[in-house]
Structure formats: C-alpha cells, structure tokens
Amino acid sequence: MLTADQRENGAVINEAVHVRPAPALRPYVAWYSGYRQVGLAPGRHRGLPSPYLTLIVTLDDPLVVEAHPDPAQPGATYTTLVGGLHTVPALITHDGRQSGVQLALHPLGARALLGLPAGEIGHLDLCGEEVLGPVAVELHERLRAARTWPARFAALDDVLLRACAGRRNPYPAPELAEAWRLLVACEYTVAAAADTVGWSPRRLSERFGAELGISPKTAAKIARFDRARRRLLAVPGPVAAGPMGGPGLGLADLAVACGYYDQAHLARDFRELAGVSPSQWLGEERRFIQAHGDVLDAV
Question: Residue ranges of the HTH araC/xylS-type domain (predicted)?
Fold first, then answer.
C-alpha cells in the first residue's frame, strides 16, 4: 500500500519479487511474481501466450485489460483475474502505477486449484470471483492487508492450500499429463507423443481440447515460443538478425536453439502469437519490463 508521503512526493518505486510457492502447491503453481511500480511513464504491455494459466491479484489499482485474446470480450478492469491458455496476446495498460501478484498456474493443476479443467476457460480472462468465488475475495483482502512480500506470499500459500484440500479427482488422466510433458519439452512430435502414451493422435487431440482448450500441436507451439521469448529477453543489449556476430545471441541462433526450422519460422510464430516481430516485442518489453518479464504473461 502506498504511503501518503509517497503519493505526494511522486516517488518512483519499482519492486519485483519472484518466488516459488510452498512445496505442496508446486504441482499446481510454478511461481509467484510480486510487482509494485509507481511513478513510471504510462504504458501498454502484451500479455503473451504461454504454457501457464494466469491468476493475478492486484494490490492498489485494478488491472486494466484493453483487449483480450478473445476479441468478443470487451475491455475491462479487474481486482483479481484468471486467464486461460490463449494463442494471441492481451493488451494491458497502466497510467504509470501498478501493483499485484501474478501466479503461473500449471494447466494440469487447474482442477485442483480452480475446481475446473483448464479447457473451460481457454482463451478467456475472467474475474477471479467467477472462478474461485470467496477464495478470490479472501486472496485480495489478505494480500492488500499484508505489508511485506513474504507476508503476501505466505497468505497465498495458506489460502491456496486450503482451496486445494478436499478436491475430488483433481488430476487428469496420466496419459494426458505425460503427453503434455513431452510436448512442452519440445522433444516429441504430436504423433510420437501419442504413440508413447498409447493413444491415437485423434484421441490425444480430443482429450487435449476437452481438458486444456487447445490442441497438442498448439501446446507444443506456445511452449516453443515461450522458451524463445524468455531467452530473447535474457540477452543483454540489442539482438541481431542472422547468426551471432558479437556479444549476445542472434535471431538465427536463437531459432535453432529453441527448435525452430530457421529464423523465418521464428519470425512467423512471433507475428502470430505476439502480434509483432521479435525485435519490436523486445523493444517494447524492455520499456515496460514487469517483474522479470513474467508479470501478466498469460492474461
């Protein structure tokens, strides 16, 4: 919570904290990212497709989503938000200040954590209360009341562990879980993954659609894209077209390292999933970096 002095003095605050949840929650939640920024230039952020669902709990001002992955959803503001897997970016705006905690949720843990399969909220952004009911209200109240990041993360652990307790049938079929693991590791084709788990490609596709809301091919595609854009963001300085010719990583090297056929393949996926070229995305993201680049990713 901002103090009166901070508001009056126009102080610049830029905090980012990235931690893992309690061990019992790690099958369901990959990480927590806390962020508080005040006094920055107004901006817009692309919430990119990723292999995770998103839960955001705001601390001060509501989250402003200008455009959702589903173009039929009108722009809106949220105190808590749950976002499903998606294949086009959301656009988030702020007026120079924003704060909250973003959670990266494993899609296969959605039944345990949210009480429904990830496929039911695919390509959607929903108010947290619509999905989690009173749990979302408690999360918002407790995180706003906490005064430190450790206290906020402890509150998340406490509330989410209680939410998971007693869920019936919280896990999808083991064949589906194994196929997901193989595909997001970008080591198997869809046919090979299906063969490995003993399903036909058609059955695998049907089960992916029902449980996750995306196809096996799309799962592999967004996992490869997510790996590429994280490596791109980690490169210091400008990124050059073509192979590496100096410090850092060239786009051609990045494409090969992440499993693309070539740089053109990487560029096509960026245009489709991010809406811009790799270099344009990187330039925008570095001007609007939030919580180590992970905040709002899957909105």
Answer: 187-284
